[in-house]
Known about the structure:
This protein is an alpha/beta fold. It has helices at about 15-30, 35-45, 45-70, 90-95, 105-115, 120-125, 130-150, 160-175; strands at about 5-10, 30-35, 75-80, 100-105, 155. It has 8 helices and 5 strands.
Amino acid sequence: MKKDRHLYLTGYRGTGKSTIGRLLGRKLNRQCVDLDDRIEELAQKTIKQIFDEGGEESFRSWESDALRLVAEGDPSVIALGGGAILREDNRRLIAETGLCFWLDADAETLLQRIHSDLSSATRRPALTDMSELEEIRGMLKTREPLYRQASDSHLDVSSGQPEEIAKEVLRRWLDFCGV
């Protein structure tokens, strides 16, 4: 495995993909790309506006377009949106262009983290009309097989500080790269 591939982080909202991605970007001397930020740049709209105007299908199309553009770029650390793995083409592209690390936590931990992140509530819409905790549990159950399929490595991030988690991802990344 060559180190000239992308390092992807996947997992549900609140798992720390963006925070850990920035730490890994510094450690690997690579750009860290937050795919949600790239979507907003391309669409010239917020994620909430994209959902409000075109629904989830429109957002997923923007997400796929942004992923293709990022995947064509220089090797980077890429923090995927929690649903980027929903489309088979995205999962295939991730597998072809890099290694993917699945950051995972229990629903209660995720809810607590989402509530403590002020930008999460305003930036990302609810995807169902269930209570927040029920939505998270349902989404995790639905997405777990896809996260498993898309990832090369699984890390439980329910506990531990971002720096510790980043070090573990880096250790696994280097193992995969044969360093």
